[in-house]
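Subject: two folds for Thursday's group meeting

Dear M.,

Sorry for the delay on this. The cluster queue was jammed most of the week, so I only got both jobs back this morning. I'm pasting them in the order they finished. Each block is the input sequence followed by the predicted structure tokens. Could you check whether the formatting survives your parser before we put anything on slides? The first protein is the one we discussed after the seminar.
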Amino acid sequence: MSAGVTQPAGAAGNLRGAGVKLGCIADDFTGATDLANNLVRSGMRVVQTIGVPDDAAAVDADAIVVALKSRTEPAADAIAQSLEALRWLQAQGVEQIYFKYCSTFDSTAAGNIGPVAEALMDALATDFTIATPAFPENGRTVFKGHLFVGDVLLHESGMQNHPLTPMTDPNLVRVLQAQCKRRVGLIDYRTVAQGADAVRARIAALREEGVSLAVLDAVSNEDLLRVGPALGDLPLLTAGSGVAIGLPQNWGLNANDQAAQLPRGSGMQAIVSGSCSLATNRQVLDFIRRGGQALAIDPMRIAAGVDVAAAALAWAEPLLAQGPVLLYSTADATDVKAVQGKLGVGEAGALVEQTIARIARGLVERGVGQLLVAGGETSGACVQALDIDQMQIGTQIDPGVPWCHAHSAAAPAGSLHIALKSGNFGTDDFFTKAFGVIA
């Protein structure tokens, strides 16, 4: 996949040495912007690429995030893409590699988190790494190796009904061990509370026991900041985006209130949503209850051969001048399973993604300059359909979701503002308040 890079974004005035410090491989596009957002907020200049760039031109930044669309690919394909990204990052001279996955640990018994992590360990010739999706600021905590989403365990959060990666076990040690050949252990909350030296000692003990991957507890942002120094010597980290907040300090970089500045928002506003998470379902309902113009995308009509994208664009075009419009395939778990039962899981997902991606491109061609996309797989399809090859990370809407400024061949002005929202992220009023942030 060809790709470009963003302009470096981050905080001026920090002390920076030459060269790229951190090289990141994200398994989907929303996760990549989530991670880049946390790094920028913590003081790093960040470049985000869409796919692996074709050239090895030097990048002037503290961190690079390579955005892949590998989360639900077959494990062998995900490994190949990740190793390609690793080789490109190594050519940039990065000092540490960060494999980023979802804060709800989206995967199946076959992977892809474990297989990709082990392939990266082999390529880097390292015998140990950590694994944690903890992002307490966004309600993702790990306690005694168990993942909580808000106040409930993972398998009670709605993730048990995920159409592609249903998560039915909150015990991450057990989940990861099922995917790995190496032994998986735990660095628990009591060790984390004692700080970096205790974490280093626990890592040394686990290595002696033959453990190669350790799930890391974290119940607060302070936990992640405490453990950051203990992770500085590991060639590879695997995590959600939360661990990122504790890493810039290892290079003398400090958090900064100056967010990356983007051009002022312009153009019409629209939302496309393919996520069926509980959070996105609430956001869709909130938007509609507030009087927002919304159109549901029916997968069965797509399967029947109806040009649903053309019909949706015809519906949206006269309404765009009146304010944001929402086009969504978001549905509850029962409806999703019914469609999957008729079309098959893969076919249903692919039909919806392709249709929403066509709609997204059509909206931008018609003058939408501010576009929200909900759902990881949906975001990947839309970014590709919009021919986006570079993004600058900007203002945060909610934890883990920033506005970005992207170059797109589909946009009449050549660029647009776009926000890629992981399905589970954002408050109920996210679709409404987001446009106020960029105005």
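Second protein, same layout:
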Amino acid sequence: MNPQNDNAGQPLALDRPQVMGILNVTPDSFSDGGLFVGREQAVAHARKMYEEGADMIDIGGESTRPGAQPVSADEELERVVPLIEIVASEIPLPISVDTSKPEVMRAAVAAGATFINDVNALRNDGALAVAAELRVPVCLMHMQGEPRSMQIAPDYEDVTADVMAFLGQRIAACEAVGIDRERIVVDPGFGFGKGLQHNLSLLRHLDDLHSLGCPLLVGISRKSMLGAILDVPVERRLYGSLAAAVMAASKGAALLRVHDVRPTVEALEVVKAVMAAK
């Protein structure tokens, strides 16, 4: 077992905003689909993110962009497990696996992952039990609907209250199977079954989610909400992504899931300096 797994079951050290670098080994992710499908390119990108100051690398083998089609467990395993093994052996960073499939969770942790990032909040059959057994920290994300149809007509009575109610239920489900709250991170799911105004309201009221008693993960990097505000394509959303990351960190986000590691790390250094001032 990879030495990084010695930390399995330990609470996350999230006493400062940290950067989770995105590594999608998919042909169809919304921003970087196809760029890192090759093993050498993927490892090189992981190394680059480490050198730029990432605190964690999030490896995913199935796109969850709006309209994305599902992939089989076998295909997802083939994409992520060999890469996790290489990255875990060569790069001294914690590895997160971005998956909803319990069989992928199990294989990824055996390969060296120490964090499960699940957009479906452990709702797949068997996922809760596997996560409890593996004893690694988990991230529970809110999503209305599922990726193929989630952006058709998202609707909420009160988006922040609805997201909090869902995440509270999933936290309770985790605790019921023995997953300690200290091992749970929550993600409001920007862009997952939410329109522009839903996303903006969630970000404005992000600090309300602290009442759930779990660290917050925020992923807004390059998302369509920024494109809608700025009227720019995905490759020109760096500045908007940085503004959103800074705002999220100032509202207490503990993990920022991003494509652009070095710019985000430097922006968060300013946030941390201000937060540490007397």
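Two things I noticed about the second structure. The chain has a mean pLDDT of 90. The first strand starts at residue 18 and ends at 24.

Cheers,
T.
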